[in-house]
Amino acid sequence: MKIVDIEKIKGTDREVQGEGWTSYRMLLKKDGMGFSFHETRIPPGAELHLWYKNHLEAVYCVEGDGSIEDLATGEVHQIHDGILYALDKHDRHILRGGNKEMRLICSFNPPVTGRETHDEDGSYILVED
Amino acid sequence: MKIVDIEKIKGTDREVQGEGWTSYRMLLKKDGMGFSFHETRIPPGAELHLWYKNHLEAVYCVEGDGSIEDLATGEVHQIHDGILYALDKHDRHILRGGNKEMRLICSFNPPVTGRETHDEDGSYILVED
After folding, report:
1. Which residue in A6, A26, A29, A35 has the most chain B C-beta atoms within 10 A of its own C-beta, making it the best mutation to test that interface?
2. Contacts of residue A62 in chain B, CB cutoff 8 Å?
């Protein structure tokens, strides 16, 4: 059994920041669960163009608000507490912050190693251990 | 892209209840993510004896409080907002509700099909589609 306290991750290499997002990697590939598990915070007004070509991702909002634009269809879905989106087709999308910081709980398959960065497409490059 | 609203799951077969728990299966095996993704509520005073012999599970608390007892070591870990536990060794455990209903976000590997029930060991039996 592993216990992970987000307060103890802050300031370590499991806290990763970019423009418009901060992510806490609670579980990574090396934790051996077969998925990774993150908490990500999106501030009001952020706009992220993302395309996880190599990963499937589920994202569940538990606080705050924002929206996601599906670039395949043009549809915009509002996000708030209790809304999950699943990128089951490696969907290209734009994630936008709303009026209050969004708190998102995310799971990735395959698991993120922690050494990925977003490339020019907004994708995570696959990293082998 | 799939959008899942917990309010639309309530009262359907994706809402599952037992003594001391209610679970909302946001993503199941058939959703094709390679993991399942649930929100589970544990009321104050609940005591659940669990042993997922067939699954790895990560559980992240985002509201409320409780505790988990690791039956391999006897250790008791307090659970509150920001604490994750990972059952990376199919750990036998007792999950206890605290003073305020716990809101837990859970991911299972392999994904739950939605047709499992807890057996006499507190395990989910593997179900093939």
Report:
1. A35
2. 62-63, 103, 105
Looking at residues A47-73, what average pLDDT do you find? 95
Count Cβ atoms below 10 Å from residue B45 Cβ, excluding itself. Answer: 11
- Rounded to an integer, what is the distance from CA B85 to the centroid of its chain? 11
Would the CB atoms of B3 and A33 count as touching at under 8 Å?
no
Ordered domains of chain A (ranges, CATH): 15-104 (2.60.120.10)
pTM of the model: 0.92
pLDDT exceeds cutoff 60 at B129: no
**C-beta atoms of B27 and A86 within 8 A:** yes
- Are the Cβ atoms of B34 and A56 closer than 8 angstroms? yes
Distances A111 to A15, A58, A108, A129, B41 between C-alpha atoms, Å = 16, 12, 5, 11, 26
